[in-house]
């Protein structure tokens, strides 16, 4: 058999980013950055399948519309020097990404029923992080950091599949297709960088982290880690 295939794809996207840093006082420095990335992706695929004698057996057609994505990110930090030997810094980051599409996959044999598969997808994910660090260089040849971090992550996804034939429409969505997963995480740590000599540097640290991961939607569960 012989297959003739034609594909048409259109993609468009832009990216906008901005950053700024300044020193409001001699002891303070601030940095901010932001980024926005919208995009759109459309795809159309068409094929014809022929038999050994050249007769048309079937046609297959797929089309994806509204495959849109929007990603945004905002971050920044503020550092304040308490003295020549001590300073602290606060860091923040927030990001979010959303996507969605409508898809159609058709199979049309010359003899036999037509079959259309309709798919709707959606996804929303994000991360929000806050971190604080205190740095002390009061001891000779030592740099000590005390810090902590709080974070929240999530992924919310949706999927609906419908199979259409001359006999009617059937729901083909698999189990646990629409669900949301979240993570709440906390961390504290202390570290020491010891310059033993010009040729040797010893770094040591202790970190404790806890997190809770939950799932909701088509299925629900929760787990905790330390």
Task: Characterize the structure shown.
A hairpin with a 4-residue loop joins strand 4 and strand 5. Helix content is 0%, strand content 81%. The protein has strands spanning 2-13, 16-25, 28-50, 56-81, 86-109, 115-136, 142-165, 168-171, 179-195, 201-217, 221-225. The chain is mainly β. The chain is elongated and about 85 Å long. It contains no helices and 11 strands. The relative contact order is 0.12.
Question: Which keywords apply here?
Answer:
226 residues; mainly beta; 0% helix; elongated
Reconstruct the topology from this structure.
Blueprint: E1 2-13, E2 16-25, E3 28-50, E4 56-81, E5 86-109, E6 115-136, E7 142-165, E8 168-171, E9 179-195, E10 201-217, E11 221-225
Antiparallel strand pairs: 1-3, 2-3, 3-4, 4-5, 5-6, 6-7, 7-8, 7-9, 9-10, 10-11
Order of helices and strands: EEEEEEEEEEE
Q: Which structural class do you get from the secondary structure elements?
A: mainly beta
Could you say which overall geometry the principal axes of the C-alpha atoms support?
elongated
Stretches where pLDDT falls below 50 for ≥5 residues? 1-10
Structure at a glance:
With 226 residues, the protein is mainly β. It is 0% helix and 81% strand.
């Amino acid at each position: 058999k012989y297959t003739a295939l034609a594909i048409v794809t259109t993609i468009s996207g832009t990216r906008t980013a901005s950053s700024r840093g300044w020193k409001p006082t001699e002891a303070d420095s601030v940095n901010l950055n932001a980024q926005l990335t919208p995009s759109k992706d459309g795809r159309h695929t068409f094929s014809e399948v022929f038999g050994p004698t050249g007769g048309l057996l079937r046609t297959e057609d797929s089309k994806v519309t509204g495959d849109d994505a929007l990603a945004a990110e905002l971050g920044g930090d503020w550092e304040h020097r308490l003295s020549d030997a001590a300073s602290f810094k606060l860091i923040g980051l927030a990001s979010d990404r959303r996507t969605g599409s409508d898809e159609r996959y058709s199979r049309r044999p010359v003899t036999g029923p037509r079959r259309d598969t309709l798919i709707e997808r959606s996804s929303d994910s994000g991360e929000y992080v806050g971190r604080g660090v205190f740095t002390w260089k009061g001891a000779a040849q030592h740099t000590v950091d005390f810090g902590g971090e709080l974070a929240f992550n999530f992924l919310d996804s949706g999927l609906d599949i419908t199979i259409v034939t001359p006999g009617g429409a059937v729901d083909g969505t698999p189990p646990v297709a629409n669900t949301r997963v979240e993570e709440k995480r906390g961390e504290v740590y202390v570290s020491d960088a010891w310059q033993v000599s010009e040729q040797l540097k010893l770094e040591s640290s202790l970190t404790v982290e806890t997190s809770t991961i939950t799932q909701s939607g088509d299925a629900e569960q929760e787990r905790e880690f330390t």
